[in-house]
Each structure stands twice: as structure tokens, then as C-alpha cells.
């Protein structure tokens, strides 16, 4: 059976499907059936990559009817996709899911968790994960195709799915997972800049030699709605006179594109509209204004652009029209903000400003420098030697600039933007650059995917590519300064499907015990020359991208070390595969899987362990080991002091040292049951050594082992100090616990603090009693529980606080109780979690209500009220999490009038890092040296 050649461009803004019939050379676009109005279906080549979740009664059942019946991969019963979603979402942006593709590359969140629409608190709007949202667009394409070609189901065709060249292994794997959820388990990934060039090559295949006669190096600049991608392709003449093309470089991932331009204009329009009572727009209304600014931008960038365009922000509810406001955006505004801001005429030596990207506005970590041309200069500098070789020029110190440019992406529909980038490159070259005409940037990537499949079949011009990056394994013990010692696993350009074995390198692999691999990628070549598999290299820290961690326990009948070699391969679908292969038996292989849920990219470097560590472990073994020996209770109680005598003050114990101590305690956990003194000492040390439960290699595995002990509770449950240490342990490691584990702890929190006599019959048998102080600290540390639960806990805490006597004088007992409840409320209502994801914070509306209550207290007499308020009002830069400006201003006034420490109003006024004193007070413990919490 002959297959259709199918290509899908799963874009940030639009999704497109192109195809060629079996044996045909003509590339066509599928007219994708979609809702264009309630109850109205029409075909169009572009499917807006958007979902709209209507309110009950907003649309009649028949108004969402499509020509087919297919379940939503995200599990939402009533949903509109495509053009209707875009229309409805412009009026009610809080119900719109957009930019799912950008979220796939955001490693700072759980991309498989239901977090979209971002920042929404409404209980009647279902949330979906970025992966599920992406799957829903692919499932829609599959259903539309199968309705059009019932005899040739899409899942049985030869499919190419395009992705940004800069997508890392995690984002690529998540894209494949979305395709699997949509019923498309077999496909091949292709990088979008390559696809755009394939489209141009295929359309010019008859005259290719003439068209590329003067070209030696092509820059493909792909700037879409949400991402910016750069690629370099070398052009050489073959023996037959036909051009030979080889991809020689790709850029790093940039969440930077048309969406950022629209948002910048929306900020300008917001300032001109003026907020009611000085309030900033809500996240939903800012999204509505951003959509209006997108349309205005396109009008003002057209050749026959008007002098200005008015953007109108509608009112809401009964005042939909009467409360609407308008502001003018002018041609000069677009020139200044879009052209000069995003494509400035900078010099070639200027590179992007390096700064840690903030999570701003809609929750995405946009590039900290919006100047695309500065990022481009840095990209060309990174690939300078390869570019000189392609151009055939000597190294004279000047930046080598490609002689030919291909522009792709919806941004370059604006002729002024396309011309500006060409002008910048021509200025850098000192001569005009040749621009390859892209007749339709919206569909070029999808069409190019089909051309790629034709090229693989020998029916079209091809681009040699292989791996886009060099991949390395970090050698932790040899890290130093600003460079990282690593061994090359797979060099740039390695062909797909060919395994690279590090024959000259042997590694000792631990079986039956936790292991972790630190892999990084780099688009630069160390020393200017292409590395080979097995080469050692010193990598500049600024040139690498950390891949998702590989942490695992490789199962074996016994714990042992065996010699292995590492084998890597770029799979046929375009993802990196890594395996350990036994040196003496090729059939013994252990495949290593990347972790794809959010975790800290900044893995700590190895730190030298103290020589006294062995003696410290012997002390632990004497107390908790298996040997039968008499140990005086006093020696058990003094274990911590003995360890400090050997290792120094525990506040200075480094994270690697703490984890080694925890591992020693974990291996001897059964010994904790010998006496109440043993149990107290073990719980205290174990919690201290594993705090905050994450941030070091294999902490996830350690938490799993520790959590397995939870249901057994404590042995000496009548000892109040044992019970207190039990809850202190779980509070200290809460940051590493899963959602399910935190919800289980929440049950015990509720039983210990809130259960009345009627509920005692449902009391868990193993429940460990906890004091009010213990339970408040544990409950407030559960940052991964759903935000609705946090709202409920916060309401209960506020009630307890406001019900306390408000006398003229507060005694020590009342002050202590205020401190406990206010500390807990500050953690529960904090805008910036210590370990939870951004979407899990308490709703902003609830936080504002709690602040209104706290403002009724006398902060001079009740100092913890100001501390709690500062965390609840903390500025994050994410409009969906931040409280309104009027409440923020009132909190700032109160902090100023009560003489609060400078760090408190600073965190309310600006996006800042917490100082160590404030951080330790809110966390309840100082962090181990060298460990930094996720931001």
C-alpha cells in the first residue's frame, strides 16, 4: 500500500497540514474543517492553535458540533478549537488556551500537569496540560483528515512533525507524547528552519544550480509567534554541478517572537488607557488588549499603513459597551517598539544581554533581551569558524556573516520587519545580502516537511543534517571555575540511526543503587574544531544547555559495579537515545530515560567531602547499625553533638555531606526503633540531612525510600518529642514530596487540627498526633496541593487569626499564637512558592481578601502580620499571580509606617530575590550551603 506523505507544522499560533498523494509531486494543503462561528463549519489551511472552554449555557450543544465525533485527548467534554476559539477567546481570554507550544519548552513547570489557561482561578473552566493541549490540535487534524480520506487513515501515512531546531530533548519527547495521545504514535521529527528551506529548495528544484550559484552560506531566520530559531546551511557545488547543502549550526531556544511584540504594544496601550483607580489590567483583559494590538501591529506594518490605529478594550458585564476605552497606536510607536526594540540596528559586536529570564505576564520565561538582532550576532559568533570555512574566508577578527538569507515565520509577513533584518545583516557584511523569497511563511514549514520526505525518497534536493548539537556527559569530579569538564557522547552532524560508542572510555556503572547522569548540549565547538565521540573537552559554562536529568536505579539481582561503555544515537524520529553497554557482553544494555517534569537546571557542583566523613558514618553505625552492642542512651542523645565535633557546626554542612549522612541513616533505618532516644535522634537527623527534599542528585529516589516509612508511623507514639520530630521531618522534606504524598499529609493535618468528635471514627490508625504548632508548620509547607485547597486552608487560618482577642495588650501566649498562624498564612498565601510550581499558588483574589483582613490588625503590636502580608503581596511579575495595585500600595504604606525591615517592602514593590534572613524565616530552616531554591 502506498502512503501519503504528510507534514504537520504544530505552531505556536497556527497548525498546518500539507501532503502529497502517493506518486505525486504536487504538495497540497489540507483544508482543515473547523468551527468558524457557533454551529458553522468551514475548511481553512490554518487551524489556530487555540482551545476555548465555554461556560455552561454559553453555546448550545449543536453549536459545537463537528462533522465527526472524537473524544478530546485532554478529557474536556465541551471545547471549541481553531478559529471559533480565537474569536470567543478575544472576548473571554480567561477561557482560552493558547501558546501551548511555548509551554512545552518551559522546564520550570510540570508540562504534563493541567496548568492552562494560565493563572485562572475559576472553578468552572477546565484546565489542561501543555502536552494535552498540543495533542488536541493533532487529534483534530487526524479526525479532519480521516473524514476527508477515510480509506487512508492519517495514522497509517508517512508523517513528519516539525519542531523548533532549538527544542531540547525534553521538549521533543513531550511533542512525541502529544502525538501518541492523539493517536499518531509513528512519525518523524524535522526541525522547522530546515523545513522552511526544504520548501524553498523544492519550489526552485528546476533552477537550483543557477539560483544558488553565488551562495555559500544560508542563514534561516525563523521568527514565529512564540519562538525564534536560527540555522546555518553550507552550500557547495557537487561534481555534477548541483548544489550540496549541509546544515552546520543551530541556535539555542528563545521564547521570543510576535507574541512578545504584541505584548510590548499592549503595555503601551495599557498606560495610555489609564486604569480605573490606578489599577493594572487583569491578566485576562491584558490578553484581550494584546490581541487587539496584534491586529493593529499588522495594519501599521503594511506598506499602505495608516498614521495610527485605535485599539478598544471592551468593558465587562452590563457595561460591555459603555465602559469600553480606546487608545491610539501610531506608526511611530511600532517603529520605536517593534522595529527598534526587537530588530535594532545594532553593531555586529553587540550580543544579547545575559540575565536570568523572569516569569512575566502570562507565566512564560521570555528571553531577557528582546533584541533579536543581538541574539543573532551571538549565534553567528558561536559558529564563526564553521561560517568562515563555508564562506572560504580567513579569520580577520570580523564577524563572518552569511551571504544569503531565508526568512520564515508569521512575523516576517510584515515587510518592514523583513527588510530591517536584511538591512542589519547587509550592514554587518558591508555588502547587500541575497534574500531568498518565501512566498508564504505561514505554510512553508508544513510544505517543507513533505519536500523532506520526497528528498528522503530521492525525489527532491536534500540537506545533510544529522545531530544539530554536540552532546556531552559532565564529569562532575573534574568541574572547575567557569568551565565544565566533559566527554563528548555524540558530535554535531552525527547521522540518524547510527550508534556512537565511546570505545576508548570505560565507566563503572552502579547496579541496584541510584545513579544520575548530567548531560548537556552545545551548538559551539570547543577550540573551534568539531569534537569526536570520546573526546574530553572543557566547555564554557555559558555555552551549554543542561538537558533534563537522567536519574534512575538500574535493577540487578545484587548491588555491584560493572564496567560499561556509553552508546548514543540520534534516533530516526530525531531524539537522543543513551544506553550503558556492558564491556564484556553487548547484549547487556541499560537504556537511560530523561526526566521530563520540571526540576532545577542548576545542579550543584561536586564539593570535596571532609576526611572525617568515614568516622561520622561509623558513629551513625554504632548507634543505628545491625551489630548487637550496648549503647548508652546518653550517647544516642549526643549523636548530633558528636557529629558536629567531627564535621564542624551543622549549619556549615554542605549539601553533598548532608546527603551522604542521610544515606547512612537510611541504610540503618531499622535501628531507629530500638528506643525512644533512637527514634528521636534518627528522625531529627534524617529530616535535617534531607532538607528541603530536593535540589541534589537522586533526592527524588531518597524521598521515595523515606515516604515508604510514612504509613508505619512512629514506634514510640506516646513520647511527645518523638511525635514532634516526626512532623518536623516531614515539614523539612515537604519540598520533595509528590502531590499525592502532600495530600496524604493534608489529611493528617485536618484530623489533628479540625476533626470533631463525629469524625474520630474515621481517624487513621497510624495517625501520629501533632501539636498545633507542628501541624500549622506542616500544613503550610504543602505547596503542591491544589490552589483551591490552599484557599480553604487560608480562609480557616484567617478566621483563627481574626477571632483572637484584640485587646490593648497582647500577652506572650497570644503573641506566640499570632506568630504561628500568621507564619502559616504567609506560606499558604505566598505569591512565590519555595518548591511548588507557579500555577499552584493560592488564588490572587483570595490573597487580596486575606490582606484586607490583615490590614485590620495593628502591625506595630503584631509584627508577624507585616511579614505575612509582605509574602502574600510579593511582586512576581506574573500578572495572574500578583495582587492589584491598590492593595499593594496599602501594604507598602503600612510597612513603611510600622518601620518594617527594608527587605519586606522591597519584595512587595519589585521582583527581587529574598535575602537569606527572610528566606530562612519563611522556610522555617536555613538552606544547606550551596543549595539554592527554585525561583
From TrEMBL:
<dbReference type="Pfam" id="PF00012">
    <property type="entry name" value="HSP70"/>
</dbReference>
<dbReference type="InterPro" id="IPR021030">
    <property type="entry name" value="DUF3731"/>
</dbReference>
<dbReference type="Pfam" id="PF12531">
    <property type="entry name" value="DUF3731"/>
</dbReference>
<dbReference type="GO" id="GO:0005524">
    <property type="term" value="F:ATP binding"/>
</dbReference>
<dbReference type="InterPro" id="IPR043129">
    <property type="entry name" value="ATPase_NBD"/>
</dbReference>
<protein>
    <submittedName>
        <fullName>Molecular chaperone DnaK (HSP70)</fullName>
    </submittedName>
</protein>
<dbReference type="InterPro" id="IPR013126">
    <property type="entry name" value="Hsp_70_fam"/>
</dbReference>
<keyword id="KW-0547">Nucleotide-binding</keyword>
<keyword id="KW-0067">ATP-binding</keyword>
<dbReference type="GO" id="GO:0140662">
    <property type="term" value="F:ATP-dependent protein folding chaperone"/>
</dbReference>
Amino acid at each position: 500500500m502506498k502512503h501519503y506523505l504528510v507534514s504537520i507544522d504544530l505552531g505556536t499560533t497556527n497548525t498546518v497540514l500539507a501532503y502529497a498523494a502517493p506518486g505525486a509531486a504536487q504538495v497540497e494543503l489540507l483544508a482543515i474543517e473547523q468551527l468558524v462561528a457557533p454551529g458553522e463549519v468551514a475548511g481553512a489551511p490554518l487551524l489556530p492553535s487555540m482551545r476555548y472552554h465555554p461556560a455552561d449555557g454559553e453555546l448550545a450543544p449543536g453549536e459545537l458540533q463537528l462533522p465527526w465525533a472524537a473524544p478530546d485527548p485532554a478529557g474536556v467534554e465541551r471545547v471549541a478549537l481553531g478559529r471559533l476559539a480565537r474569536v470567543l477567546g478575544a472576548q473571554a481570554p480567561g477561557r482560552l488556551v493558547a501558546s501551548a507550544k511555548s509551554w512545552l519548552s518551559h522546564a520550570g513547570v510540570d508540562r504534563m500537569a493541567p496548568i492552562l489557561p494560565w493563572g485562572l482561578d475559576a472553578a468552572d473552566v477546565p484546565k489542561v496540560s501543555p502536552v494535552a493541549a498540543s495533542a488536541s490540535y493533532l487529534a483534530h487534524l487526524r479526525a479532519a483528515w480521516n473524514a476527508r480520506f477515510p480509506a487512508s487513515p492519517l495514522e497509517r501515512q508517512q508523517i513528519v512533525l516539525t519542531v523548533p531546531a532549538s527544542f531540547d530533548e525534553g521538549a521533543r519527547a513531550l511533542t512525541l507524547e502529544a502525538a501518541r495521545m492523539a493517536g499518531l504514535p509513528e512519525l518523524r521529527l524535522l526541525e522547522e528552519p530546515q523545513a522552511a528551506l526544504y520548501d524553498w529548495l523544492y519550489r526552485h528544484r528546476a533552477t537550483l544550480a543557477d539560483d544558488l550559484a553565488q551562495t555559500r552560506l544560508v542563514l534561516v531566520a525563523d521568527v514565529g509567534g512564540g519562538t525564534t530559531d536560527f540555522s546555518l546551511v553550507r552550500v557547495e557545488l557537487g561534481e555534477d554541478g548541483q548544489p550540496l547543502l549541509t546544515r552546520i549550526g543551530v541556535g539555542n531556544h528563545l521564547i521570543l517572537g510576535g507574541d512578545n511584540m504584541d505584548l510590548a504594544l499592549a503595555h503601551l496601550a495599557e498606560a495610555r488607557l489609564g486604569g480605573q483607580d490606578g489599577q493594572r489590567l487583569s491578566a485576562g483583559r491584558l490578553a484581550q488588549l494584546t490581541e487587539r494590538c496584534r491586529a493593529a501591529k499588522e495594519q501599521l506594518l503594511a506598506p499602505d499603513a495608516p498614521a495610527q490605529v485605535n485599539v478598544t478594550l471592551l468593558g465587562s458585564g452590563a457595561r460591555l459597551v459603555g465602559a469600553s476605552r480606546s487608545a491610539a497606536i501610531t506608526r511611530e510607536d511600532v517603529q520605536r517598539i517593534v522595529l527598534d526594540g526587537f530588530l535594532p540596528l545594532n553593531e555586529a559586536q553587540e550580543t544579547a544581554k545575559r540575565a536570568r529570564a523572569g516569569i512575566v505576564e502570562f507565566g512564560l520565561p521570555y528571553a531577557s533581551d528582546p533584541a533579536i538582532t543581538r541574539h543573532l550576532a551571538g549565534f553567528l559568533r558561536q559558529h564563526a569558524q564553521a561560517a568562515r570555512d563555508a564562506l572560504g574566508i580567513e579569520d580577520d577578527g570580523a564577524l563572518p556573516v552569511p551571504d544569503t538569507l531565508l526568512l520564515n515565520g508569521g512575523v516576517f509577513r510584515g515587510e518592514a520587519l523583513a527588510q530591517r533584518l536584511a538591512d542589519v545583516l547587509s550592514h554587518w557584511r558591508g555588502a547587500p545580502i541575497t534574500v531568498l523569497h518565501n512566498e508564504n511563511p505561514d505554510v512553508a514549514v508544513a510544505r517543507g516537511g513533505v519536500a523532506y520526505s520526497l528528498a528522503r525518497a530521492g525525489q527532491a534536493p536534500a540537506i545533510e543534517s544529522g545531530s544539530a548539537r554536540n552532546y556531552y556527559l559532565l564529569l562532575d569530579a573534574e568541574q572547575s571555575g567557569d568551565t565544565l569538564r566533559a566527554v563528548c557522547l555524540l558530535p554535531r552532524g552525527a547521522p540518524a540511526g547510527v550508534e556512537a560508542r565511546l570505545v576508548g572510555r570505560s565507566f563503572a556503572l552502579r547496579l541496584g543503587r541510584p545513579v544520575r547522569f548530567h548531560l548537556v548540549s552545545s551548538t559551539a565547538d570547543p577550540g573551534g574544531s568539531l569534537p569526536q565521540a570520546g573526546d574530553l573537552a572543557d566547555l564554557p559554562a555559558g555555552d551549554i544547555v543542561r538537558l533534563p536529568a537522567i536519574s534512575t536505579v538500574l535493577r540487578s539481582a545484587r548491588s555491584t559495579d560493572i564496567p560499561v561503555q556509553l552508546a548514543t544515537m540520534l534516533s530516526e524520529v530525531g531524539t537522543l537515545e543513551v544506553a550503558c553497554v556492558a564491556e564484556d557482553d553487548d547484549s547487556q544494555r541499560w537504556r537511560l530515560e530523561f526526566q521530563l517534569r520540571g526540576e532545577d537546571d542548576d545542579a550543584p557542583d561536586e564539593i570535596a567531602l571532609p576526611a572525617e566523613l568515614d568516622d561520622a558514618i561509623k558513629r551513625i553505625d554504632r548507634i543505628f547499625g545491625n551489630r548487637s552492642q550496648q549503647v548508652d542512651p546518653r550517647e544516642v542523645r549526643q549523636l548530633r553533638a558528636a557529629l558536629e565535633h567531627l564535621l564542624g557546626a551543622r549549619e556549615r554542612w554542605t549539601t553533598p555531606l548532608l546527603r551522604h549522612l542521610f544515606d547512612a541513616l537510611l541504610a540503618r533505618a531499622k535501628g531507629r526503633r530500638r528506643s525512644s532516644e533512637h527514634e528521636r535522634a534518627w528522625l531529627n537527623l534524617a529530616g535535617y540531612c534531607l532538607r528541603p527534599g530536593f535540589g541534589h542528585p537522586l533526592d527524588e529516589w531518597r524521598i521515595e525510600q523515606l515516604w515508604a516509612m510514612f504509613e508505619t508511623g512512629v514506634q514510640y507514639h506516646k513520647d511527645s518529642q518523638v511525635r514532634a520530630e516526626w512532623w518536623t521531618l516531614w515539614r523539612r522534606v515537604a519540598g520533595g514530596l509528590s502531590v499525592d504524598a502532600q495530600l496524604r499529609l493534608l489529611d493528617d493535618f485536618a484530623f489533628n487540627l479540625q476533626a470533631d468528635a463525629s469524625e474520630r471514627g474515621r481517624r487513621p490508625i497510624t495517625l501520629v498526633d501533632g501539636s498545633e504548632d507542628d501541624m500549622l508548620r506542616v500544613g503550610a509547607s504543602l505547596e503542591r496541593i491544589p490552589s483551591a485547597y490552599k484557599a480553604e486552608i487560608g480562609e480557616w487560618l484567617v478566621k483563627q487569626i481574626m477571632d483572637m482577642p484584640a485587646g490593648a495588650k497582647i500577652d506572650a501566649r497570644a503573641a506566640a499564637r499570632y506568630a504561628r498562624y500568621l507564619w502559616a498564612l504567609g506560606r499558604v498565601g505566598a505569591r512565590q512558592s519555595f518548591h511548588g510550581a507557579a500555577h499552584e499558588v493560592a488564588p490572587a483574589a483570595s490573597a487580596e481578601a486575606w490582606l484586607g483582613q490583615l490590614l485590620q490588625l495593628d502591625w506595630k503590636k503584631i509584627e508577624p502580620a507585616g511579614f505575612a502580608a509582605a509574602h502574600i503581596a510579593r511582586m512576581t511579575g506574573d500578572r495572574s499571580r500578583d495582587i492589584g495595585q491598590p492593595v499593594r500600595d496599602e501594604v507598602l504604606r503600612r510597612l513603611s509606617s510600622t518601620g518594617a525591615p527594608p527587605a519586606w517592602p522591597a519584595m512587595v514593590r519589585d521582583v527581587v530575590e529574598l535575602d537569606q534572613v527572610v528566606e530562612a524565616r519563611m522556610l522555617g530552616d536555613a538552606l544547606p550551603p550551596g543549595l539554592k531554591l527554585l525561583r
